[in-house]
Amino acid sequence: MAVATKGGTVKAASGFNAVEDAQTLRKAMKGLGTDEDAIISVLAYRNTAQRQEIRTAYKSTIGRDLIDDLKSELSGNFEQVIVGMMTPTVLYDVQELRRGAGTDEGCLIEILASRTPEEIRRISQTYQQQYGRSLEDDIRSDTSFMFQRVLVSLSAGGRDEGNYLDDALVRQDAQDLYEAGEKKWGTDEVKFLTVLCSRNRNHLLHVFDEYKRISQKDIEQSIKSETSGSFEDALLAIVKCMRNKSAYFAEKLYKSMKGLGTDDDTLIRVMVSRAEIDMLDIRAHFKRLYGKSLYSFIKGDTSGDYRKVLLVLCGGDD
């Protein structure tokens, strides 16, 4: 199965001393001007757990909040990366979902399609604690029709997490999808939603193979021809994440940078949220899919301290 094998670029620093790091950061921000390089040299080379320890040490030894200080000293995309790196993993997803609600449908799709059911349940709990309202309610108020239904379904975190395979159900699902789309005029969109949002990964990979056997088409091709808009984007994201999550993120990064302009929100979110998980895998897929290194793309598309910190999160140039 195509799961992350190489891992992340950001690892726990050895010989770590939270108090020392806190002092270094304070010094970097005190007085006139800010020493951005010093901030990068500490925070980009620590993992999320260590950054939380630094924040605690900063508060207890200096009596100030590190994130507040960083926000007042930094600005723009660089600030967004650094503050993102300082935010605990689940809370980061929660804040991104809140920011994306109503404005950035790609953000909602990416997070809800790529996180595990367990992660999604934690995200839902934290969202409720943070904002006093449910993630589902916010999705409902900001989206509509089938797109709303697929996001609500994903946000329930109810996908089967087992590996169990039932050959008869695999054939049935593949046949149902075929009959719901390719075989008839008009599409039974609910059938796509039910199968893609609730079945386990192992089962779905077999369904995709069986679907191709019956219809002579990849499920992605059928989704593209049978559905449209954000609903189509969401279904495609689910399929891609099931097949190969790291390749899905490689494509997200490529699309955030190719052509004119940069989708900085997506670039930052993927780099920050995947650095410790599967950045090495993402890099390998990026090179395989696009013939150039992720490093070279980031280097050509960004500048200044923003570029510096992203290149550290990226790791090497291969």
TrEMBL record:
Q: Which GO terms describe its cellular component?
A: nucleus; plasma membrane; zymogen granule membrane
Instruction: Give the matching InterPro entries.
Output: Annexin (IPR001464), Annexin_repeat (IPR018502), Annexin_repeat_CS (IPR018252), Annexin_sf (IPR037104), ANX4 (IPR002391)
Keyword check for Phosphoprotein: yes
Q: Where in the cell is it found?
A: Zymogen granule membrane
Bilayer topology reads: Peripheral membrane protein
Signal sequence span per UniProt? none
Q: Recite the UniProt keywords alphabetically.
A: Acetylation, Annexin, Calcium, Calcium/phospholipid-binding, Cytoplasmic vesicle, Membrane, Phosphoprotein, Repeat
Do you know which SUPFAM superfamilies this protein is assigned to? Annexin
Return one GO MF term. Answer: phosphatidylserine binding
Q: Print the domain comment field.
A: A pair of annexin repeats may form one binding site for calcium and phospholipid.
Q: What is this protein called?
A: Annexin
- Specify the species: Macaca fascicularis
Q: Name the encoding gene, please.
A: ANXA4
